[in-house]
User: Fold this.
Amino acid sequence: MTLDARIGLRKGALDLDLGLRVAPGELLVVVGPNGAGKTTALRALSGLEGIDAGFIRLDGATLDDPVVGVFTPPEHRPVGIVFQDGVLFPHLSALENVAFGLRGRGTGGVGARRRAHEWLDRVGLAAMARARPVALSGGQRQAVALARALARDPRLLLLDEPLAALDATTRSDMRHELRRHLDTYDGVRILVTHDPIEAIALADRIAVLEKGRITQEGTPADVRARPRSRYVADLVGVNLLAGRADGNLVRLSGGATLIVADPLPTGDVLAVVHPRAVALYADPPAGSPRNVWPVRVAAVDDEGERVRVRLSGPVDLVAEVTPAAASSLAVAPGASVFASVKATEVSVFPA
Assistant:
């Protein structure tokens, strides 16, 4: 009982070609840059976009297969979808918004309202049943949209950046609530997001979509440990360097060299360095660092307890230092410093 899909679809400049297989109770989080095809993939699964090639099968039933001429309209698919802005009917109360989807599936008025009340109670909004969307906060509107989607007992739940429109505090609170409600749902779940914290906090499995193709897939821990593209490295907040290994030496694609702790077989590799492992000095450091480069500060981002410093030079890096260290080094765009990384702080895997 799974979602098994192969989606081939062309829309403007987008050439979408991806395979998805998701089990009930599993939450697949799809991440990727703007224009990668994330929302289009969800629209195809929901029936809002027809596919040009491939198939969409849910619990063994074919919903879409252009080769054999099968297409199930959105209203006949056992699919619930929550959009970024909730898309509630402004003239209907919270109760009637939830009941609307049930009526569309043939549930009578009394039964639809009773079940809508039950779901509003589950999401903590029973007291706001008569309120219209304009009287609800952003988090409350998204909770109503989630209740509307789940009230229909869908076999597939699609969430398209459901927390993106919320402020930071509300988003954090709603993330915990979303996790709680998703844990009670035993169907297939797919969530699209740009937020790395959201992806890592919620996902059972992450799929990275870039230019219409899945470029990496795995558990959050796998993706964090072994990013396979610059986009993924930026997403999880690490430095990713490509090069060719030869013993304890990695010749980087930009011409610099990187010394690693353990000898490696000859071949193309990717090296990961956490920004906190990048130390900055006003003068060339003495002692244990094996990798030292003169660099120039390209940008500085003060993030409260840490300062992220973007560096350009023989090796382009991001360093994370304390505010005190940044102040003592007079770190500012254009400043010249030395960056060092211990060989033991470099993680390397085959490209």
The first strand starts at residue 3 and ends at 11. The longest helix spans residues 168-183.
